[in-house]
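Aim 2, interim progress: modelling of the S-adenosylmethionine-bound target.
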Amino acid sequence: MSQSYAMLKCYGSCSMSSVERRPQWMSTRMMLSPQVAQDNEELRLRTTFVALHKPVEGLYAMNGGDGLHSYAQNSSYQRGVVDVAKPIIQEEITTKLDIEQLSSTSQYNFRIADFGCSTGHNSFPAIQIIIQAIEKKIERERELQNFDYQVFFNDQVMNDFNTLFASLPPERKYYAAGVPGPFHGRLLPKDSLHFAYSSCALNWLSEVPKAVQDGTSRAWNEGKVHYTGAKKEVFDAYSNQYDKDITSFLNSRATEVVSGGLMALLVPAVPTFDHSETTYTTPTEMDVLGSCLMDMANKGRLSKAKVDSFNFPLYFIIPNELKAIIERNNNFSIERMEILNNPGKHSLRSANERASYLRAVFEGLLVNHFGSGIMDELFERYANKLEESSHFLDPDNEKSIIIFVLLKRTGDK
Ligand SMILES: C[S@@+](CC[C@H](N)C(=O)[O-])C[C@H]1O[C@@H](n2cnc3c(N)ncnc32)[C@H](O)[C@@H]1O
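Predicted structure of the complex, ligand included:
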């Protein structure tokens, strides 16, 4: 590394006191001699050098590292999705994966990709489930040779890939590679992928719909940070953006996935767009977080304009809408579609645990817009609000769903 400036990105459990007080993802510009960097093993293991010296709008990821507020320590909710999907993925690989067809075109290299893998600890068990199921199938069809597996771990460029690579299971049966960049566009060569997977990631939009941030638009989302309880125009802008984004995702994967290849998607969703006073979903929780930001603006802790110009780039679809988008796209056949109830919701037993789960996911995004100074107060207010309304504390009132959909790449390519 060159002698001069190092762009240092510090993650959750970085032990140096000068950076300890910074938020997990925050970039800081430090003079770092090669000697100092070498001497500090902890620092070396927990840092990523990035070509950024300040937050850049639109670039964020889950909290990295494995510290208190890290995604790794606060994503038991998302882990539940892998667990509930396991038998279904096993069954679908057994019945729907045409090993003979794929091996004839791939020279016994089998390529898998996880789109939106974060730091990997939920991705690794999912990849293991997929490879074990393929191996079982090969075992049954004895004349077939074993595959060499290659796994592509994809996420946004700001993702903590260092933690992912440092945590790769030592006993893995695959060659691993990181693929940085937005999954709404092309990431891999044409006809290179045999199995695509994505869990808890396709609810993220490529961007906040422009109209909801435009003060002159009918869809301007004044005083709110998401579409729950907002004007119809706001909801429509989100819905249109989602349609565009999922279509781009499907088009990109259609080019990358070989004919006959499979794609297993686990999509965070809601059963209905209607709101209930006694139950809640992830979008409702985001609305509560937004109300905490508004409370802070009303108390002068931040400006109202700052809240007005912030919106979450996420959308939670209903099953029929997702089905319609996939059918319209026409590049994949729907082999199976099912609604799953995520057992992971029972792992969040208190308001503080719910706050930590949202913080691990949204802190990077929020710091990007509001700065790091308000984070502790914001999530404390959020936990307090949840405690005040009893229905948020019973996980059985959480009605978010996961849509499992297995797609097969159709057509001659
Ligand atoms: C809630 S996490 C899920 C991580 C992991 N799949 C799991 O189940 O624990 C969502 C992940 O999707 C990633 N993501 C969101 N939008 C993305 C995009 N456009 N391209 C690539 N990754 C994206 C986020 O950075 C994040 O790591």
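Confidence is low (pLDDT under 50) at residues 1-54. Residues 61-62, 75, 78, 116-118, 122-123, 154-156, 159, 182-184, 199-201, 204, 206, 361 surround S-adenosylmethionine (CB under 6 Å).
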